[in-house]
């Protein structure tokens, strides 16, 4: 990072900055050009490792590209901070993992706790859930501390 005085080095502070963002942009290897798409997301820390989740339809360009190359980049920002990084996407098939991911995602947008039973079986059958295991990520304050 060029302006090291703006770096958010603490993992928990970076995570808090990420959770203040309303959406993230996912970048995948496209056909002839990068493919970037804004997404709603959920995030959690597994120790000091960041894990991201998003959901989408069961078919589409994003999934086609992820199946060809699961390496991704991401970024999220608000008026004062930004977080970006890289990782590997995995389409979740295990129902327990899918439900956990959706609970994490919903917690990002609501103070309400969503039980496993609150998810409609019909909606679940139409929903693809993706986990991103983050390899590296950085945070930056857009103003000096």
Question: Any overview of this molecule?
Answer:
The chain is α+β, with helices and mostly antiparallel strands and 145 residues long. The chain contains four helices and eight strands; from the N terminus they run βαββββαββααβ. Strands 1, 2, 3, 4, 5, 6, 7 and 8 form an eight-stranded antiparallel beta sheet that branches. A hairpin with a 3-residue loop joins strand 6 and strand 7.
Roughly how much helix do the residues carry, as a percent range?
25-40%
The average pLDDT is 92
Order of helices and strands: EHEEEEHEEHHE
The total count of strands amounts to 8
Low-pLDDT residue intervals, each spanning 5 or more residues: none
Provide a brief overview of the structure.
The protein is of the alpha+beta class.
List descriptors.
145 residues, alpha+beta, 8-stranded antiparallel β-sheet, 4 helices, 26% helix, globular
Write the SSE topology.
Elements: E1 7-8, H1 11-19, E2 24-28, E3 35-39, E4 42-46, E5 49-57, H2 61-68, E6 71-77, E7 81-92, H3 95-109, H4 121-125, E8 127-141
Antiparallel strand pairs: 1-8, 2-3, 2-6, 4-5, 5-8, 6-7, 7-8
């Amino acid at each position: 990072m060029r302006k090291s005085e703006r770096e958010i080095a603490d993992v928990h502070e970076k995570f808090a900055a990420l959770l203040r963002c309303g959406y993230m942009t996912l970048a995948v290897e496209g056909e002839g050009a990068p493919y970037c798409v804004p997404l709603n997301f959920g995030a959690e820390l597994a120790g000091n490792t960041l894990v991201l989740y998003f959901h989408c339809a069961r078919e589409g360009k994003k999934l086609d590209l992820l199946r060809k190359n699961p390496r991704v980049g991401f970024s999220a920002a608000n008026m004062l901070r930004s977080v970006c990084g890289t990782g590997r996407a995995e389409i979740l098939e295990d129902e327990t993992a899918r439900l956990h991911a959706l609970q994490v995602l919903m917690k990002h947008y609501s103070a309400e706790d969503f039980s496993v039973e609150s998810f409609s079986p019909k909606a679940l059958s139409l929903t693809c859930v993706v986990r991103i295991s983050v390899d590296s990520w950085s945070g930056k304050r857009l103003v000096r501390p």
